[in-house]
Amino acid sequence: MPTIVPVTEAKAKLAELIGLSDTEDVVVTQRGRAAAVLVSASRYSEMLDRIETLEDSLEIADAKLHREPTVPLSQVVSDLGL
User: Fold this and answer.
1) Residue 7's CATH number
2) DSSP letter at 22?
3) Residue 52's pLDDT is what?
4) Using an 8 Å Cβ cutoff, are 4 and 16 in contact?
5) Do the Cβ atoms of 46 and 22 come closer than 8 Å?
6) How far apart, in whole angstroms, are the C-alpha atoms of residue 68 and residue 26?
7) In total, how many domains does the chain have?
8) Mean pLDDT of the chain
């Protein structure tokens, strides 16, 4: 469960919230609504790596689903006269 903090409180406790962001998300609110999420740099990097892995997996799955006929390399070499 994320920690929810109003922006005015977040300004005063920023260093503490940065430390907390190593283990959990910190939601900063403005006028009672979520305005930002504070996530540590290491957790952010991990999330980007996971997203990249998932995107790669989706591309592979899509390629398998819409597989077009393939031509062996030897045939391509022969066709090109190499």
Assistant:
1) 3.40.1620.10
2) T
3) 97
4) no
5) no
6) 46
7) 1
8) 93
For the stretch 18-32, pLDDT in tens is 999 999 999 999 999
Start-to-end CA span in the chain (Å): 62
Closest CA to 38 of 67, 4, 63, 1: 4
Question: pLDDT at position 1, please?
Answer: 86
Strand order in the sheet with 33-38: 3-6, 26-30, 33-38
Question: How many Å apart are CA 17 and CA 7, to the nearest integer?
Answer: 11
Q: For the chain, what's the residue count?
A: 82
Cβ 26 vs Cβ 14: under 8 Å: no
In a domain, 74, yes or no: no
Look at residues 45, 44, 32, 38 and name the one whose alpha carbon lies nearest to residue 17: 38
